[in-house]
Amino acid sequence: MPRSEHRVHREVVSYVRRSARMNPSQAKAWESHASRLIIPVPQRELSASVHPEAHVDWDAAFGRRAPLAVEIGSGRGEALVALAEQHPDWNLVAFEVFQPAVASTLSRIARHGVENVRIVLANGVEGLDRLFAPHSIIELWTFFPDPWHKPRHHKRRLVSPEFAALVASRLTRDGVWRLATDWSDYAEAMREVLDAAPGLVNPHAGWAPRFAERPVTKYEARGLAAGRAVHDLEYRPVPRVGDLVHRRPHPGPRTEVPL
Ligand SMILES: C[S@@+](CC[C@H](N)C(=O)[O-])C[C@H]1O[C@@H](n2cnc3c(N)ncnc32)[C@H](O)[C@@H]1O
Question: Could you report the per-residue pLDDT of 201-220, keeping only the tens digit for each?
């Protein structure tokens, strides 16, 4: 895979390092499903990092070739599994750094019987950069990223100009980046960064309608109960001269090829 020119070796990360202690049911789910559903990736010296030379053969990891969609910060997997059920013809890769949440996701995957999800227990920013070829992802989802409220922590927010450039480089020409947040100031900051991102366009010119396939997660429900408004955003790569002015019908094309 071509090495990216994007510098995302930031030690300033978008997540909190928390204890990996799992409760008994999470430990059981981990033991039962991790070897099948977790994709191990070589790390740098930092935990949750992705080594610059890491590589994953996604067709082999899923046992088939299909359009790739990615979620970064999948939490307990509520949106991930709902989206996997709605897109059985896509291969879904989730990045999450918090092991107990990943264990809960494994258990949800098993309960719902979805076969088209794999999880990487690592920093999704580095993963997107290092494990995916340019223009290889049909959709990217970043739902309710950590808000990092304090001004001195804003640099830890997932949505930044550098990350926007990376996303633009990884989406297919008709790809879509869907975001949601229940923090109005972060929503405004996302709009400011992404509306100015040279590689992306906002097809709605403002907030996107709620992404209908996205379920209300526990996290979102808490925000709503606290009286916060939820904003959805959607960005697409800038069309190039010569690209067909054509938007992928919904749902995406059935291009699954058994290996
Ligand atoms: C506020 S929670 C939201 C979880 C989920 N999207 C939802 O809506 O319920 C944000 C999650 O993103 C994860 N996270 C933050 N930055 C990440 C990164 N760079 N790579 C992978 N996971 C990340 C955190 O560990 C946390 O579980």
Answer: 999 989 999 999 999 999 99
Kindly list the protein residues whose Cβ atom lies closer than 6 A to any atom of ligand 1. 14-15, 72-75, 78-79, 95-98, 101, 123-125, 143-146, 158, 217, 219-220
User: How far apart (Å, rounded) are the C-alpha atoms in residues 138 and 207?
Assistant: 21
Amino acid at 148: W
Distances 77 to 35, 84, 111 between C-alpha atoms, Å: 17, 10, 12
- Sequence-ordered alpha helix ranges (H) in 64-114: 78-86, 99-112
Task: Tell me which DSSP letter residue 153 carries.
Answer: G
Q: Does the model's pTM come out above 0.70?
A: yes
Enzyme catalytic residues? 146
| 105 in Cβ contact with 76 (< 8 Å) | yes
Sequence-distant (≥ 6) Cβ neighbours of residue 166 within 8 angstroms: 4, 6, 8, 125, 128, 129
For the chain, domains (ranges, CATH) are 39-240 (3.40.50.150)
Ramachandran angles phi, psi of 144, nearest 5°: 55, 55
